Please model this.
Amino acid sequence: MQNTDKLRSLIQKLVGEPITVNCDRFDELTFLKMDYHWYSQFNEILLLLGFDRITQSFFQYLVNQDIEYKKIPQ
Model:
């Protein structure tokens, strides 16, 4: 299973809905290591697939079950 297939499956589980938007650009995504840009990138992926954005606190909870958003130093 490719990274995009895994991410697509995880996003569908997260939002509780199937992805109904046909988006060829999603399969062209390149994945970087988790860094402070990932919050923004994850929201862009959600929008690309037709879902709403998430808050910084919820993203932080997804990362490490903490609700206080912390940027990773550059």
